[in-house]
Write a structure and sequence with these properties.
Elements (H helix, E strand, L loop, with lengths): L3 E4 L2 E4 L10 H5 L2 E9 L2 E2 L2 H14 L8 H15 L4 E8 L13 E7 L12 E7 L13 H5 L1 H7 L3 E6 L3 E4 L4 E6 L3 E4 L8 H11 L4 E3 L2 E2 L8 E6 L3 E8 L2 E2 L7 H30 L1
Parallel strand pairs: 7-8, 7-15, 11-12
Antiparallel strand pairs: 1-2, 1-6, 3-4, 3-5, 5-6, 8-9, 9-13, 10-11, 10-14, 14-15, 15-16
Helix pairs in contact: 6-7
The structure holds pyridoxal-5'-phosphate.
The site of pyridoxal-5'-phosphate has 14 residues, from helix 6 and strand 14.
């Protein structure tokens, strides 16, 4: 059972966690968030997620009312109090209770815990994407605004696609609704859009791991390059590395998940295991000290 949430630095009963309707997140969609997993009781890559959360806030001229160290301590405390070994954590920073329905007020900060999503790092026969001409409004900021993705869910379903691929001006591939996008050329060259995307924490880990095995490029990717790609895949916190086998009516490579995505998936799993072992070792050292 997840018994607790944290609101503005205080533990509250999870069922009673709430905001007033005058919050700018409700009235104007003004809020940022982040989401990460914890396993074996340890948050994965917490510093990367905290850095991104604080950076999102800064870019919108919002302020997280706690230091990173203090906020990290609250996150660890919540996980300990809920007593689960694994799960997900959502961080949320909202515009606050606005006096006039428009100007930001004192922000509200929430730490919410969830069970581990059922689809976490699931292996897949590959998904099909529908392109959509769109560029997220402030691509570097993880805002709570997913209007485009959510409103197109019925259309996706009707056409038999699994997810969207956002293409700026119909020309430049950027990312998906909740995932970063990679292509593989010549069976080894790993390429991902380098501009106007949310800088995913999984994207960062995969770029690092891919760099140990393959040539890696972060650059603008034109839609016309799809026909030359041997493989495509998504990265995200929940998806890990997820192969993409079709985009609109075009098959990627031979239309099956490729070897590079499979290798990077394995590398990612090993990397997480090594990270968790390191975290456990540090925790034991602290206990013994
Ligand atoms: C969260 C998100 C991603 C993936 O980032 P991760 O840190 O790997 O989960 C990619 N694009 C968008 C728009 C996102 O919101």
């Amino acid at each position: 059972m997840i018994n607790y949430s944290n609101i503005n630095g205080h533990l509250v009963a999870a069922g009673e966690a709430s905001l007033k309707v005058s919050d700018l997140s409700v009235l104007r969609g003004f809020a940022i968030f982040d989401f990460f997993l914890f396993r074996k009781g340890h948050p994965l890559f917490l510093n990367d997620y905290l850095d991104r959360f604080y950076r999102s806030a800064q870019l919108l001229h919002m302020e997280v009312p706690f230091s990173k160290t203090d906020f990290a301590r609250q996150i660890i405390q919540l996980i300990e109090r809920n007593g689960q070994e694994e799960g997900g954590i959502r961080l949320l920073l909202t515009g606050g209770y606005s006096p006039d329905g428009y100007s930001p007020a004192e922000p509200n900060v929430l730490i919410l815990q969830y069970p581990l999503p059922a689809k976490t790092w699931q292996s897949s026969q590959g998904i099909k994407l529908m392109t959509h001409t769109f560029l997220r409004e402030i691509p570097e900021v993880k805002t709570t605004n997913y209007v485009t993705g959510i409103s197109l869910l019925p259309e996706l379903k009707r056409c038999g696609f699994d997810d969207l691929l956002f293409v700026e001006n119909g020309e430049w591939i950027r990312e998906s609704v909740r995932s970063n996008f990679f292509l593989v050329f010549d069976g080894q060259r790993v390429v991902t859009p380098g501009n106007k995307v949310l800088l995913g924490v999984t994207r960062k880990q995969i770029l690092h791991l891919a760099g140990k095995r393959y040539p890696v490029e972060e650059r603008d990717v034109h839609i016309s390059e799809l026909k030359e790609a041997h493989e495509a895949f998504f990265t995200s916190t929940i998806k890990g590395v997820l192969p993409v086998v079709q985009i609109d009516d075009q098959l990627i490579g031979d239309g099956k998940p490729g070897l590079v995505s499979a290798q990077l998936y394995q590398d990612f799993i090993s990397h997480v295991e090594a990270y968790l072992e390191e975290q456990s070792r540090k925790a034991r050292q602290l206990m013994e000290a």
